[in-house]
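Annex B. Sample input.
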Amino acid sequence: MTGPRVAAGWPGRHCVRELRSGAVPAARSKLKVMVRLDVDMAAAHIRIRGTVTERNLGAVYAVVRRACTFAGGMAVVLDLRQAVVGAVPMADLHSARRTGQLPPATGPASVPCRLEVLEPAAA
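Annex B, continued. Sample output.
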């Protein structure tokens, strides 16, 4: 078997099947997030662990949006060094960094944001 494997069947059974689609199972796409604010409120540091997909990118944007609105003008450092990030989510994050605005889909109005992205480690 070459792809990811996931347990199938009833609890306690040890059946395993291969995921041929290459999709990440929901249990393995769960994100772990830690937010740290600088004492002087100059920056918020958001560390993400797990797999960032197109499906859960909205959750990442929600955390970034809250940090951006917490104190106006605060830089937000999104640390993805311990995460696995797909090509599309990474391109979306780079676009948000370049424009200085989070996508309108993340809330009722576009939010200005000084976003810095620390790239994931090369696999």
